[in-house]
Description:
alpha/beta, four-stranded parallel sheet, two-stranded antiparallel sheet, 6 strands, globular
Amino acid sequence: xxxxxxxxxxxSERLILYANGCSMTYGYELIDDPETHVxxxxxxxxxxxxxxxxxxxxxxxxVVNDSIPGGSNDRILRTTIRWVLxxxxxxxxAGRERLLVVIGWSDPxxxxxxxxxxxxxxxxxxDYPDLPELxxxxxxxxxxxxxxxESACRFATQVLALQAFLQRYGVRFLFFDALKSxxxxxxxxxxxxxxxxxxxxxxxxxxxxxxxxxxxxLSVATPQWKGRHPAEDGHDYWAERLAGYxxxxxxxxxxxxxxxxxxxxxxxxxxxxxxxxxxRLRARRAFKADPFIYP
Length: 295
């Protein structure tokens, strides 16, 4: 069930951080049963995933982590728009001035379909034997319509659509790539020049300076991974990087951020080329062993 926005009665003067994405934002494997992969302690997971760590660095506040494991960009776009509209209806201008939206875009090949009265997340190369209708649809989709060019074009459209929506309502936001660099994706769309020109590069972390994803950067910076996803140190490091970027780009201006907050001070450092080279080298090696390392 998707989380609902806070009621007007709960209004305060603190930051509200809304995050959406896939397992990299959810905090998958932080406190999971090693056999069932079911989260054993949601409060622990929520407290150590990067959205809560980021809010902590920005002085605290309310965190809504709306991500799910295997979440698609279809879902990110749909649920973010719905949540923000509901939130603004409830909180109005006072809420908008306290709201920061941070999106970790997922792999563009993932899809969302409405089947049997429920939204279902689909990873094309997976089978779903316990869900016959979904499995039947995915089998046909995989054989007939799954295409890198379509996935890339759809992703570019989703980025520009959510960007335009948030700008229309004056909501502060930051995008980043969780699994795959958007520049590589736009190149697959064979229309990268037009899309790059339309993207607000200031509000897209690493869009220009490095072009690497969260997975690529953390595979170098924090090599102690828990299975296929970052451990606690990786989430904290990512929160540090995002906080530094938000501060360096003045994207926190006007938000209720206490002066004593732990915003990363070294905002001028560009880890760029080394992270990009080493991260992509490791990613390529992992791809050869398992082309779908992030289910």
